[in-house]
Amino acid sequence: MGCCYSSENEAADQEEETKRLLPPAVSPTNKVLNGAEQNYHSVPSARTDEQAMLSSILAKTATNIIDVSAADSQGMEQHEYMDRARQYSMRLTMLSSSLTHWKKLPPLPSLTNQPHQVLASETVPYPDLQQVSRIAAYAFSALSQIRVDAKEELVVQFGIP
Amino acid sequence: MGAGRGGHKKGRGGRSADRGVRGGGGLEMTTALTQGLERIPDQLGYLVICDGAVLASAGELENAEHTAGVISELVGTACGFRLQRGPDPPFKRLSVVFGEHSFLVTVSGQKIFVVKRQNHGRGPVSV
C-alpha cells in the first residue's frame, strides 16, 4: 500500500490500518438502513431462501457503504463536529509518536563471503550497459507520456454546517 | 607477506575512526581487509565502510567521506530490493559506471567494500 516496499508485513499492517481511530458513534447512515429493513418486513410472509440471501447481501452492503450525499446534516452539531475533529487529531499525534517502524534502519544483508574476489572479477560488459541504458530511456519516455484523463468532478459537497 | 609496502593506508582526517579495530589485533585485521583490495587489477583506490564510518581508505578514495556516505545510502536502498519476493537481495555486486572509471561495491559481514577501477576500451554510453 502506498509506495514500493512501504510495508514489509502486509497482514499485520492491514489490520492496523483498518482499525477505527475513535469508537463508533450512532451515525446518520443507520437511519437509511432501518428504513430499508422496514420495507422488507412488509413483503408477503412467503419469503424464499433467495429473498433471504438477497436481503442479507443488501444489509451487508448497506453497512459497508457510506453514502455521503444521503447524510443527514442535522445529525451533528457544530460543536460536536469540532469536538470530533479535536479527538481525531489528538489520537493521531499519540499514534505517530509511537511509529518507530520506519525510523529503524534494517541491518545490511551480506551479499558475499568473498568480497575481494567479487570486486576483482570482470566488470559488466559494455554491450550490457548499452542495452540497459536503452531500456531505461524507453521506460523514461513511456512514463513521461502518462496523462490524467479527468472524467468526473473531483470535489463533492458534504452536508456539514 | 610483510608490511614492506608501508602496510595498509589509513585515511587521515579527524572523523575516519577505526571503529572495527580493537586492542592488539587492530593492524592485522585492517590489513586482512585491505590486502585483497590492494591487489585488484587496475584499481585506483578503495574504501571499507562499517556502520557509516570509514574503516580504511586508499588511493583516489583516501579520506573520501562524502563518497562513502553517498555509496552507503545507495547500498542501503539497493539491498531493500527484492525480485519475486525472494528472501535475499537479487545481486552480489553493485557497479556505478562512469566514463573513465567505475565504482564496484559489495557487502560482506556488515561491511561495505568499494573499489574504484579504471574502465578499459570503451567510450561513454550513449543512447
**Mean pLDDT across all residues of chain A, rounded?**
76
The SS-based structural class of chain B is: alpha+beta
* Order of secondary-structure elements of chain B: HEEHEEE
Radius of gyration of chain B: 16 Å
Q: Give the low-confidence spans of chain B.
A: 1-25
Arithmetic mean pLDDT of chain B: 79
Biggest sheet statistics of chain A: none
Total beta strand runs of chain A: 0
Helix fraction of chain B, binned, reads: 10-25%
Question: Strand percentage of chain A, roughly?
Answer: under 5%
Strand residues, percent of chain B: 25-35%
Give the proportion of residues in helices of chain A: 40-55%
User: What coarse outline of chain B follows from CA principal-axis ratios?
Assistant: globular
What's the main sheet of chain B like? 5 strands, antiparallel
Using the alpha-carbon principal axes, give the shape of chain A.
elongated
Tag the structure with descriptive keywords:
heterodimer; A: 161 residues; mainly alpha; 6 helices; 51% helix; B: 127 residues; alpha+beta; five-stranded antiparallel beta sheet; 2 helices; 5 strands; 21% helix; globular; disordered N terminus
Q: What would you note in describing this structure?
A:
The complex is a heterodimer of chains A (161) and B (127). Chain A is mainly α. Helix content of chain A is 51%, strand content 0%. Chain A is built from 6 helices and no strands. In chain B, strand 1 and strand 2 form a beta hairpin. The N and C termini of chain B lie far apart (47 Å). Chain B is built from 2 helices and 5 strands, in the order αββαβββ. At the A-B interface, helix 5 and helix 6 of A face strand 4 and strand 5 of B.
